[in-house]
Design a protein that fits this description.
Oligomer: single chain
Number of domains: 1
Number of helices: 1
Largest sheet: 3 strands, antiparallel
Strand content: 25-35%
Strand order of the largest sheet: 1-2-4
Shape: elongated
Structural class: mainly beta
Distance between the termini: 15 Å
Radius of gyration: 17 Å
């Protein structure tokens, strides 16, 4: 789920006018510390969902069901493919949403 947030003026953070931030609801996998960058990883449980700043995301993954149980395999395709820095301008947001 994606959220477009309008943040008000906050001079303490250097914001002299309202500005937009794109946020995402992210649900991480409980991989018991295994790293999908290094090896094939599967999981059965997820962690508590969080809302984070979309520009903080450095990669994306997918998943594929393993067998008939509750186990999922991680499909990792994020090496240098995602660049969201600086994409809070209104035209970019409108292109994403409409």
């Amino acid at each position: 789920m994606i959220f477009v947030c309008i943040l008000l003026v906050d001079e303490a953070f250097g914001h002299e006018k309202p500005h937009r931030r794109i946020m995402a609801l992210v649900e991480s996998c409980d991989t018991n510390g295994e790293d999908a960058n290094i090896s094939l990883v599967s999981y059965k449980n997820t962690l508590t969902p969080r809302i984070i700043y979309l520009a903080a995301i450095k990669g994306m993954v997918g998943r594929v069901k393993i067998g008939l149980g509750k186990e999922w395999g991680i499909i990792h395709r994020s090496a240098g493919l995602l660049d969201l820095e600086g994409n809070e301008d209104p035209e970019f947001i409108d292109e994403m949403l409409y």
